[in-house]
Structure formats: C-alpha cells, structure tokens
Amino acid sequence: MKALVLAILTLLGAAVFGARAQESQASICANRVTQFVADLDQLLAQRPRSVMTVKGMMAKYLPVSGCDISGVIAIAKTSKFFSDVFEIQPSYTIIFRSPEFLVTFGLRKDTGDIQNPSARVRGYLLYD
What we know:
The chain is an alpha+beta fold. The protein has one domain. It contains three helices and four strands.
C-alpha cells in the first residue's frame, strides 16, 4: 500500500513540476519577446544603415521555445513596426516593416517555438 501511495505522489509531483516548467518557459519566452519588440522598435526608429545591425540585435533574443502563441502575437502587435501575422501550416509568420527593413520570424503552432528569424533590406526576398 505504501508503495502505491508513493507512486501516486510521485506521478502527481511530476505532473505539477511539468506544468510549472511549461508555465516558466512561456514566461521566459514572453519576457524575451517583449524585450525583442522594445529593442526592435528603438533600433528601427534610429534607421540603422546595415541589416547586420538588425540581425545582431535579433540574435540576442531569437530563437526561443515553448512560447504561448496568442501571447507572442499580442506582444508583436504592440510594435510600432508590426505589419502582419499570417498562417502558413504549421506556423504563423510575423512581420515587422520599417522603411528600410523587413523583419520576420516563424511561430510554430505545435510547439510554440519561434524559429527562422530573418531581417532583409526592403525589396529583397523575405527568407534566407
């Protein structure tokens, strides 16, 4: 009987720990995306001369995993350079535009992972 109770408590503890880990990862992601959007807005407002400046800033924050999808989209929409979010299976693509640059990243629906961050000079292809 003691073994059964111990096994049940172990399973319950693992479930609680797993839920906390997911919540924690979503919180980490939300913080990183919030800071990314703030830094992106500040950088694009300064009209940098090189796309490498934008890519360098992006590399500080992206990619990141385990995000809350609706939360990431809501945070992205707070940017003054937010342009669009559209769905391409199995992901969303989020786009920011300045007069000089297109900045994008993918957001996977199945995992909440942010992937494929990209910055391009306007007029060129969106993706690497």
